[in-house]
Amino acid sequence: AQKITQTQPGMFVQEKEAVTLDCTYDTSDQSYGLFWYKQPSSGEMIFLIYQGSYDEQNATEGRYSLNFQKARKSANLVISASQLGDSAMYFCAMRGDFSGGYNKLIFGAGTRLAVHP
Amino acid sequence: NAGVTQTPKFQVLKTGQSMTLQCAQDMNHNSMYWYRQDPGMGLRLIYYSASEGTTDKGEVPNGYNVSRLNKREFSLRLESAAPSQTSVYFCASRIGGVVHEQYFGPGTRLTVT
Protein backbone atom coordinates (compact mmCIF):
# COMPACT_ATOMS: atom_id res chain seq x y z
CA ALA A 1 0.00 0.00 0.00
CA GLN A 2 1.12 3.53 -0.64
CA LYS A 3 2.20 5.46 2.41
CA ILE A 4 3.98 8.68 3.38
CA THR A 5 5.83 8.89 6.69
CA GLN A 6 7.03 12.09 8.32
CA THR A 7 8.79 11.12 11.53
CA GLN A 8 9.44 14.61 12.92
CA PRO A 9 6.31 16.03 14.56
CA GLY A 10 8.18 19.24 15.34
CA MET A 11 11.44 20.92 14.40
CA PHE A 12 13.04 24.21 15.25
CA VAL A 13 15.81 26.12 13.54
CA GLN A 14 17.61 29.40 14.06
CA GLU A 15 16.91 32.14 11.58
CA LYS A 16 19.30 32.10 8.58
CA GLU A 17 20.28 28.47 9.13
CA ALA A 18 19.33 25.54 6.91
CA VAL A 19 16.90 22.83 7.99
CA THR A 20 15.97 19.42 6.59
CA LEU A 21 12.48 17.99 6.96
CA ASP A 22 12.29 14.23 6.51
CA CYS A 23 9.89 12.29 4.33
CA THR A 24 9.93 8.61 3.46
CA TYR A 25 7.48 6.90 1.20
CA ASP A 26 6.36 3.45 0.28
CA THR A 27 5.03 2.52 -3.14
CA SER A 28 5.34 -0.29 -5.65
CA ASP A 29 4.63 2.05 -8.56
CA GLN A 30 7.38 2.74 -11.07
CA SER A 31 6.05 6.18 -11.90
CA TYR A 32 5.22 8.50 -9.04
CA GLY A 33 5.87 11.98 -7.75
CA LEU A 34 6.57 13.68 -4.45
CA PHE A 35 5.28 17.08 -3.35
CA TRP A 36 5.89 19.40 -0.45
CA TYR A 37 3.22 21.80 0.75
CA LYS A 38 3.42 24.51 3.41
CA GLN A 39 0.51 25.30 5.71
CA PRO A 40 0.97 28.51 7.73
CA SER A 41 -1.15 29.25 10.78
CA SER A 42 -3.68 30.97 8.51
CA GLY A 43 -4.53 27.52 7.18
CA GLU A 44 -4.04 27.66 3.44
CA MET A 45 -2.04 25.01 1.60
CA ILE A 46 0.84 26.43 -0.44
CA PHE A 47 2.60 24.32 -3.08
CA LEU A 48 6.39 24.44 -2.66
CA ILE A 49 8.12 21.87 -4.83
CA TYR A 50 7.61 18.73 -6.92
CA GLN A 51 9.90 15.81 -7.85
CA GLY A 52 9.02 13.13 -10.38
CA SER A 53 10.38 9.64 -9.92
CA TYR A 54 12.13 9.76 -13.30
CA ASP A 55 13.62 13.21 -12.80
CA GLU A 56 17.38 12.84 -12.82
CA GLN A 57 18.16 15.99 -10.90
CA ASN A 58 16.85 17.05 -7.52
CA ALA A 59 14.15 19.70 -7.75
CA THR A 60 14.90 23.21 -6.55
CA GLU A 61 12.66 26.25 -6.14
CA GLY A 62 14.40 29.27 -4.68
CA ARG A 63 15.36 28.44 -1.08
CA TYR A 64 13.65 25.06 -1.27
CA SER A 65 15.30 21.92 -2.57
CA LEU A 66 14.15 18.33 -2.52
CA ASN A 67 16.78 15.75 -1.63
CA PHE A 68 15.45 12.75 -3.55
CA GLN A 69 17.05 9.39 -2.76
CA LYS A 70 15.12 6.83 -4.76
CA ALA A 71 16.84 3.72 -3.40
CA ARG A 72 16.13 4.83 0.16
CA LYS A 73 12.62 5.99 -0.78
CA SER A 74 13.18 9.34 0.81
CA ALA A 75 12.26 12.84 -0.37
CA ASN A 76 13.52 15.28 2.22
CA LEU A 77 12.83 19.01 1.98
CA VAL A 78 15.78 21.32 2.56
CA ILE A 79 15.08 24.95 3.38
CA SER A 80 18.16 27.14 3.16
CA ALA A 81 18.60 30.45 5.01
CA SER A 82 15.48 30.03 7.15
CA GLN A 83 13.26 33.05 7.67
CA LEU A 84 10.72 33.78 10.41
CA GLY A 85 7.97 33.46 7.80
CA ASP A 86 8.97 29.83 7.24
CA SER A 87 7.36 28.89 10.56
CA ALA A 88 4.50 26.62 9.50
CA MET A 89 3.33 23.06 9.10
CA TYR A 90 4.96 21.20 6.21
CA PHE A 91 3.35 18.26 4.45
CA CYS A 92 4.94 15.70 2.17
CA ALA A 93 2.58 14.11 -0.37
CA MET A 94 2.78 11.50 -3.12
CA ARG A 95 0.97 10.76 -6.35
CA GLY A 96 1.42 7.51 -8.22
CA ASP A 97 0.10 5.05 -10.74
CA PHE A 98 -2.41 4.12 -8.06
CA SER A 99 -4.07 7.42 -8.78
CA GLY A 100 -5.00 6.33 -12.29
CA GLY A 101 -3.38 9.36 -13.77
CA TYR A 102 -5.71 11.65 -11.90
CA ASN A 103 -3.20 12.80 -9.35
CA LYS A 104 -4.90 11.62 -6.22
CA LEU A 105 -2.52 12.59 -3.44
CA ILE A 106 -1.59 10.78 -0.27
CA PHE A 107 -0.34 13.06 2.51
CA GLY A 108 1.91 12.52 5.49
CA ALA A 109 0.97 13.73 8.97
CA GLY A 110 3.15 16.80 8.69
CA THR A 111 6.08 18.44 10.50
CA ARG A 112 5.67 21.68 12.40
CA LEU A 113 8.67 23.97 11.86
CA ALA A 114 9.43 26.84 14.21
CA VAL A 115 12.05 29.40 13.16
CA HIS A 116 13.64 31.23 16.08
CA PRO A 117 15.22 34.70 15.76
CA ASN B 1 -7.29 36.06 -10.85
CA ALA B 2 -8.66 34.74 -7.55
CA GLY B 3 -7.36 31.16 -7.92
CA VAL B 4 -9.48 28.68 -5.95
CA THR B 5 -12.27 30.13 -3.82
CA GLN B 6 -14.41 28.34 -1.24
CA THR B 7 -17.59 29.32 0.53
CA PRO B 8 -18.40 29.47 3.35
CA LYS B 9 -15.23 29.96 5.42
CA PHE B 10 -16.86 28.70 8.61
CA GLN B 11 -20.01 26.70 9.30
CA VAL B 12 -21.64 25.12 12.34
CA LEU B 13 -24.25 22.43 11.76
CA LYS B 14 -26.38 20.31 14.02
CA THR B 15 -26.31 16.55 13.58
CA GLY B 16 -28.61 15.54 10.74
CA GLN B 17 -28.58 18.88 8.95
CA SER B 18 -27.44 19.12 5.35
CA MET B 19 -25.28 21.65 3.57
CA THR B 20 -23.28 22.22 0.40
CA LEU B 21 -19.72 23.50 0.30
CA GLN B 22 -18.97 25.51 -2.80
CA CYS B 23 -15.70 25.63 -4.72
CA ALA B 24 -14.79 27.59 -7.84
CA GLN B 25 -11.56 28.11 -9.77
CA ASP B 26 -10.78 30.67 -12.43
CA MET B 27 -7.58 29.09 -13.76
CA ASN B 28 -9.27 26.99 -16.48
CA HIS B 29 -8.13 23.83 -14.69
CA ASN B 30 -9.51 20.48 -15.75
CA SER B 31 -9.29 18.47 -12.52
CA MET B 32 -10.77 19.36 -9.16
CA TYR B 33 -10.53 17.68 -5.75
CA TRP B 34 -12.11 17.74 -2.29
CA TYR B 35 -9.99 16.88 0.77
CA ARG B 36 -10.63 16.90 4.49
CA GLN B 37 -8.07 17.63 7.19
CA ASP B 38 -8.66 16.38 10.70
CA PRO B 39 -6.68 17.76 13.64
CA GLY B 40 -3.05 16.64 13.66
CA MET B 41 -3.38 14.82 10.36
CA GLY B 42 -2.60 15.29 6.74
CA LEU B 43 -5.26 15.75 4.09
CA ARG B 44 -7.38 12.85 2.86
CA LEU B 45 -9.13 12.77 -0.50
CA ILE B 46 -12.93 12.63 -0.42
CA TYR B 47 -13.90 12.92 -4.10
CA TYR B 48 -12.30 14.15 -7.26
CA SER B 49 -13.31 15.17 -10.76
CA ALA B 50 -10.76 14.43 -13.45
CA SER B 51 -12.61 16.56 -15.97
CA GLU B 52 -15.93 18.27 -16.47
CA GLY B 53 -18.73 15.72 -16.34
CA THR B 54 -16.83 13.07 -14.36
CA THR B 55 -16.53 12.42 -10.65
CA ASP B 56 -15.05 9.57 -8.66
CA LYS B 57 -14.56 8.48 -5.07
CA GLY B 58 -11.39 9.08 -3.13
CA GLU B 59 -10.18 7.61 0.12
CA VAL B 60 -13.04 8.71 2.43
CA PRO B 61 -16.24 9.25 0.39
CA ASN B 62 -18.84 7.94 2.81
CA GLY B 63 -21.40 10.56 3.84
CA TYR B 64 -20.61 12.91 0.96
CA ASN B 65 -21.78 13.62 -2.57
CA VAL B 66 -20.29 15.88 -5.20
CA SER B 67 -21.36 17.74 -8.31
CA ARG B 68 -19.11 19.06 -11.05
CA LEU B 69 -21.47 21.79 -12.13
CA ASN B 70 -19.24 23.05 -14.94
CA LYS B 71 -15.52 23.39 -15.55
CA ARG B 72 -15.20 26.08 -12.89
CA GLU B 73 -17.31 24.72 -10.05
CA PHE B 74 -17.15 21.60 -7.89
CA SER B 75 -19.47 21.32 -4.90
CA LEU B 76 -19.44 18.96 -1.93
CA ARG B 77 -22.70 18.04 -0.20
CA LEU B 78 -23.24 16.59 3.25
CA GLU B 79 -26.74 15.08 3.24
CA SER B 80 -26.99 14.31 6.95
CA ALA B 81 -24.10 15.77 8.91
CA ALA B 82 -22.47 13.75 11.68
CA PRO B 83 -19.98 14.87 14.39
CA SER B 84 -17.34 12.70 12.66
CA GLN B 85 -17.52 15.10 9.72
CA THR B 86 -16.18 17.95 11.84
CA SER B 87 -13.07 18.92 9.89
CA VAL B 88 -11.47 21.50 7.64
CA TYR B 89 -12.43 20.96 4.01
CA PHE B 90 -10.12 21.95 1.17
CA CYS B 91 -10.89 22.18 -2.50
CA ALA B 92 -8.03 21.96 -4.99
CA SER B 93 -7.60 22.16 -8.74
CA ARG B 94 -5.02 21.09 -11.28
CA ILE B 95 -4.66 21.98 -14.92
CA GLY B 96 -4.13 18.34 -15.92
CA GLY B 97 -1.83 16.45 -18.25
CA VAL B 98 1.81 16.32 -17.17
CA VAL B 99 1.43 19.27 -14.82
CA HIS B 100 1.05 17.72 -11.42
CA GLU B 101 0.75 20.60 -8.97
CA GLN B 102 -2.57 21.03 -7.20
CA TYR B 103 -3.58 24.50 -6.03
CA PHE B 104 -5.70 24.74 -2.93
CA GLY B 105 -8.48 27.00 -1.75
CA PRO B 106 -8.43 28.64 1.70
CA GLY B 107 -10.53 25.90 3.32
CA THR B 108 -13.89 25.67 5.09
CA ARG B 109 -13.91 24.95 8.81
CA LEU B 110 -16.98 22.83 9.58
CA THR B 111 -18.18 21.92 13.05
CA VAL B 112 -21.02 19.44 13.56
CA THR B 113 -22.55 19.43 17.03
Describe the protein's architecture and organization.
The complex is a heterodimer of chains A (117) and B (113). Chain A has no helices and 12 strands. Chain A has strands at 3-5, 10-14, 19-21, 24-26, 32-39, 46-52, 60-61, 64-69, 74-79, 88-96, 106-107, 111-116. In chain A, strands 2, 5, 6, 10, 11 and 12 form a 6-stranded mixed beta sheet that branches. In chain A, strands 3-9-8-7 form a 4-stranded antiparallel beta sheet, with no helix packed on it. In chain A, a hairpin with a 2-residue loop joins strand 7 and strand 8 (64-69). The mean pLDDT of chain A is 93. With 113 residues, chain B is mostly beta strands. Chain B has no helices and 11 strands. Chain B has strands at residues 4-7, 10-13, 19-25, 31-37, 43-49, 56-57, 64-68, 74-78, 87-94, 103-104, 108-112. In chain B, strands 2, 4, 5, 6, 9, 10 and 11 form a 7-stranded mixed beta sheet that branches. The A-B interface holds A 4, 33, 35, 37, 43-47, 50, 52, 91, 93, 95, 101-110 and B 31, 33, 40-45, 48, 50, 56, 58-59, 88, 90, 92, 94, 100-107, 109.
Outline:
With 117 residues, chain A is mostly beta strands. Helices cover 0% and strands 51% of the residues of chain A.
Reconstruct the topology from this structure.
The complex is a heterodimer of chains A (117) and B (113).
Chain A: E1 3-5, E2 10-14, E3 19-21, E4 24-26, E5 32-39, E6 46-52, E7 60-61, E8 64-69, E9 74-79, E10 88-96, E11 106-107, E12 111-116
Parallel strand pairs in A: 2-12
Antiparallel strand pairs in A: 1-4, 3-9, 5-6, 5-10, 7-8, 8-9, 10-11, 10-12
Chain B: E1 4-7, E2 10-13, E3 19-25, E4 31-37, E5 43-49, E6 56-57, E7 64-68, E8 74-78, E9 87-94, E10 103-104, E11 108-112
Parallel strand pairs in B: 2-11
Antiparallel strand pairs in B: 1-3, 3-8, 4-5, 4-9, 5-6, 7-8, 9-10, 9-11
